[in-house]
């Protein structure tokens, strides 16, 4: 079975391009368009990896990350935070709240595919 990835982002163009890119790489893709939807989808779908935007309606990526880490059933879920906020303090905050990795937007698609493969333990 192919690894399942949740794309949590409120920007439709990013969601469309990430979904296309990841499906092309053979992943199963689930979408969440706000923070609360992301938390619900993580608990329901138990994805192998979450691509999590920081700036989202209802709950920020930081809040989602914190909630996932405190929820026993899904706390081991890998989280890659994607954000336009690339300041060191933002990166440090994301990692402190339990994100496994951090990428700033805009990012090269090849770089993202490689990072996803790496985080899922697959050779890119």
Can you tell me about this structure?
- The chain has 124 residues and is an alpha/beta fold.
- The chain is 43% helix and 20% strand.
- It is built from 5 helices and 5 strands.
- It has helices at residues 12-24, 35-45, 61-69, 88-96, 109-119, and strands at residues 4-8, 28-32, 49-53, 78-83, 101-104.
- The chain has a 5-stranded parallel beta sheet with strand order 2-1-3-4-5, sandwiched between helices.
- α2 runs parallel beside α3 (61-69).
- It is globular.
- The two termini are 17 Å apart.
- 30% of the residues are buried.
- The mean pLDDT is 92.
Q: How much strand content do the residues show?
A: 15-25%
Query: Spans of 5+ residues with little confidence (pLDDT < 50)?
Result: none
Strand order of the largest sheet: 2-1-3-4-5
Q: Could you give the order of the helices and strands?
A: EHEHEHEHEH
List the SSEs and their pairings.
Blueprint: E1 4-8, H1 12-24, E2 28-32, H2 35-45, E3 49-53, H3 61-69, E4 78-83, H4 88-96, E5 101-104, H5 109-119
Parallel strand pairs: 1-2, 1-3, 3-4, 4-5
Helix pairs in contact: 2-3
Summarize the structure.
With about 120 residues, this protein is of the alpha/beta class. The chain is built from five helices and five strands. Helix content is about 45%, strand content about 20%.
């Amino acid at each position: 079975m192919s690894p399942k990835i949740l794309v949590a982002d409120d920007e439709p163009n990013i969601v469309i391009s990430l979904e296309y890119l990841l499906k092309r790489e053979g992943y199963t893709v689930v979408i969440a368009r706000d923070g609360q939807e992301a938390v619900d989808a993580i608990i329901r779908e138990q994805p192998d990896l979450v691509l999590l935007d920081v700036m989202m309606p209802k709950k920020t990526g930081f809040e989602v990350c914190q909630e996932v880490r405190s929820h026993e059933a899904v706390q081991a879920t890998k989280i890659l935070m994607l954000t336009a906020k690339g300041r060191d303090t933002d990166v440090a905050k994301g990692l402190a709240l339990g994100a496994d990795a951090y990428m700033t937007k805009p990012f090269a698609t090849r770089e993202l595919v490689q990072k996803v493969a790496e985080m899922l333990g697959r050779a890119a």
